[in-house]
Amino acid sequence: MSAHHLKLNLDKTELLFLPGKDCPTLDLTINISTSVVSPTETARNLGVILDNNLSFTANIAATTRCCRYTLYNIRKIRPQLTQKATQVLVQALVTSSLDYCNSLLAGLPACAIRPLQLIQNAVARLVFNLPKFSHTTLLLRSLHWLPVIARIHFKTLVLAYHAANGSGPSYI
Question: Global pTM?
Answer without folding.
Answer: 0.86
